[in-house]
Amino acid sequence: MLMGVSCARAQDQLKIAVTDSATGKPIQEVTVKINGAVVGFSDTAGKLVMTSAPGTYTMQCSATGYAAMELKVTLPAAGWVLIKMAPSATDLEEVTLVASTRNNQAMEDNPLKVEVLGKEELAEEANIRPANVASLISDVSGVQIQQSSAVSGNSNVRIQGLQGRYTQVLRDGMPLYEGYSGGFGILTIPPLDLKQIELIKGSASTLYGGGAIGGLINLISRIPGFDQEAEAVVNYTSLSEVDADAYLAKRYKKVGYTFFAGYTHQDAKDVNGDGLSDVPDISSLVVHPKLFFYPSDKTIISIGGTGTFDDRKGGDIHVLQDGADSVHKYYERNNSQRFTGEYMIEHFLPQDGKLVFKGTASQFGLTTTTNTYAMDGKDLTWYDEASLSMKVHSNGFFVGGVNMFGDNYFTTQPAGAYISSFNNFTVGAFAQYSLTLNERTHLEAGIRVDATDKYGSFFLPRIAALHHINEHFGVRAGFGMGYKLPDPLEQQDIDYDPLTIVPPGGNVQAELSYGYNLEGNYKKEWDKEHTLFINHAFFLTTVSNPIQFVTDSLLDRVELVNEKKPVTTMGFDTYVKGVVKKWELYAGYTYTDARMHYAVSDQYVPLTPRNRLAFVVVKEIEEKWRFGLEGSYIGTQYRYDGTPTPSYMMMALMIMRNIGSHVTLVLNCENLLDYRMTKEESVYTGSIQDPMFKPLWAPVDGRVVNFSIKWKLAGKK
Q1: What is the pLDDT of residue 92?
Q2: Is the dihedral of CA 132, 136, 141, 147 positive or negative?
Q3: What's the domain count of the chain?
Q4: What is the arithmetic mean of pLDDT over 520-547?
Q5: Is residue 550 located within the same domain as residue 422?
Q6: C-alpha separations of 633 from 288, 430, 609, 630 in Å
Q7: Domain span at residue 136?
Q8: Which of 219, 243, 258 is the last residue in one of the domains?
Q9: DSSP label at residue 546
Q10: Which of 350, 372, 456, 622 is most buried by its number of CB atoms within 10 A?
């Protein structure tokens, strides 16, 4: 909608100035297109100047939080074009664009369901748990953070009841945390460095290749804006954890940058007094600089690097604090370094088209030392991709591309390790077509063909559909296939001794999956202070040729074996969220029936709760105070021997105080009820000199209180 035009002679130039129709303030970072091609972005004054040949053009202007506009302009122009954009009546969450689907559609119009944790959730998490995003991800229904080691604190992400190795973790659409290099990955990603987190539940292998059988987590990095950004967070917990994070960003006309640095130190703690650490001693440093170049209005080039240094020590608390003696000997130390380089070239084409080249290379080294052995391994992974996206016609959108992924691991010590080296190489091609039949119906189909160097080729189709019955009701359905290559070094629920694992035999095959989903939702908005959203989703995933890690006690080694019968997980996920004046309310329930059909009596997948209930209540007062209470009920799980665990409740309480627009104080308490697995049973068997740890089914660190201060030194409030 063109709200106003004024003139001042400027032949062969198109000069626009964009302002908010309600406040009159300039709007920066408005995307301006001429005949469907991106020609530039408005600056901090809301202005953009360009030149073009004489003629009449269609100009589109769009910005997050504002209604898109379209108007006709003629060159030579009579002068400045003053555009007043109206704030969108749609809630910001509902217009969030997602990168994981590759089509840049809004969430509410995407046939493939993507759940997004946006800037508000990440900003809040940076105050509550600044060290990593594990806690925030676990708040999503159907997602479970499973701690795999009581000694190192290592964890993995389970989605819809499947083990963590079936979840693919990406950074800006590129795999970084695969196989051996997946160790401690999710535990070293601070929320202050992220723009948003996108989650896809169910198979997403068609888009991103093997591994995304249970689901996908895409961590989207922050990008610079024209305003200077400068933020810092300091945090201290009752378990003697100290966190300090800082973020800087700024975009100029032709260049820009982002810079993140974060440090965490945690003292080892024996919470239950059994002589073994429940929280390891941790020292962790993350540094992530990134440069952006804007050679033209149609091209963005970015290059960056990340260094992650993580040192963890756990075991006998006497050894950790006072040193070893004749009785106290047991300890485990994991010292890891990850060096990552990344690049991306984006070139915008007419008709919403885009050509993208991107890639990453990462070297991960892990040295594990105990009182009985030492192991040093290194893993080099790399990924390159070229993709093209474009409008095919007025209501169709195509994405296609090729990619290569390599993984090369080798053991530097000891010389006699079963696995001295291990590698995989995959070349893939993918295509996706999205069709908007009308305003209410959206369809999508995709295919991927991957060729691997050891396990043959895979053809992965995917289809999805979304139909808005009316302005309140909608339904979504989809089907997709996936695969997972055998990898003896990827993280497991059980913390195996890596020196006892043998390479996959020639008869071991890749795992294949078939995933289905069906959901319905209801949305009602009376006004900004009274909204309601209800979602109910069914899911079913079958994994054939499931790989199990089988221990041969006679030979003292662990082998990979394909089972003849599948693993299936099925269930439903229901959640309700709403706003009543300044109250934000959420309640969700997930039922999961995950079974190993090759086991006796179709045994349940271990450590997967069948019933899980969660709620959140948040109250905000005059944008100064924010109070939050959340709770979750975790139902019965099954241990590896088939015996049930007790169900339990978790509660958390948060108080936040904003002081002006630059300082935020947070007091937070996790695990308010202090529930711990060690209150029900010991986490190990054997002696303290040689403990054998059980798989963990509940927290072991207990109640934790933390206090944080966040300074917003520059940037938007």
Answers
A1: 33
A2: positive
A3: 3
A4: 93
A5: yes
A6: 37, 41, 10, 11
A7: 92-219
A8: 219
A9: -
A10: 350
Predicted confidence at residue 32, as pLDDT, reads 86
In DSSP terms, 629 is beta-bridged to 617, 653
Q: Is-cis flag, bond preceding 111, omega within 30? A: no
Whether the CB-CB separation of 132 and 188 falls below 8 Å is answered with: yes
What is the Cα 10 distance to its own chain's centre? 48
pTM of the model: 0.85
Long-range contacts of 403-407 (CB under 8 A, 24+ apart): 403/209, 403/427, 403/428, 403/429, 403/430, 404/428, 405/175, 405/209, 405/381, 406/380, 406/381, 406/382, 407/178, 407/179, 407/181, 407/379, 407/380, 407/381
Q: Is the omega angle on the peptide bond into residue 566 within 30 degrees of 0, that is, cis?
A: no
Task: Say how far apart CA 611 and CA 647 lie, in whole Å.
Answer: 9
Distance CA 122, CA 143 (A): 17
Nearest to 173 by CA among 338, 31, 360: 360
Please, which pLDDT band fits residue 185 given cuts at 50, 70 and 90? low
Model pLDDT, residue 97: 57
Q: What is the CATH number of the domain that holds 28?
A: 2.60.40.1120
Nearest to 304 by CA among 446, 193, 158: 193
Burial class of 204 by CB neighbour count within 10 A (0 to 12, 13 to 18, 19+): buried
Does 527 score more than 90 pLDDT?
no
Average pLDDT for residues 122-140, to the nearest whole number?
85
Output the six-digit token pair for 324: 């070893």
**554 Cβ neighbours under 8 A, 6+ residues apart:** none
Nearest to 161 by CA among 451, 515, 557, 631: 515
Angle at 90 between CA 86 and CA 95, to 5 degrees: 100
For residue 135, what are the β-bridge partners? none
Instruction: Compute the distance between CA of residue 714 and CA of residue 717 in angstroms, rounded to an integer.
Output: 9
Work out the average pLDDT over 557-568.
Answer: 94
What separation, in Å, do the N-terminal and C-terminal C-alpha atoms of the chain show? Answer: 28
**Tokens of residue 18, six digits:** 């964009």
Q: Which of 219, 249, 275 is the last residue of a domain?
A: 219
715 band by pLDDT with thresholds 50, 70 and 90: low
Closest listed residue to residue 139, CA positions, set 172, 119, 109, 117: 117
CATH code where residue 129 lies: 2.170.130.10
Mean of the per-residue pLDDT values of the chain: 88
Residues 207 and 236 grouped into a single domain: no
| Cα–Cα distance measured from residue 452 to residue 509, given in angstroms and rounded to the nearest whole number | 12
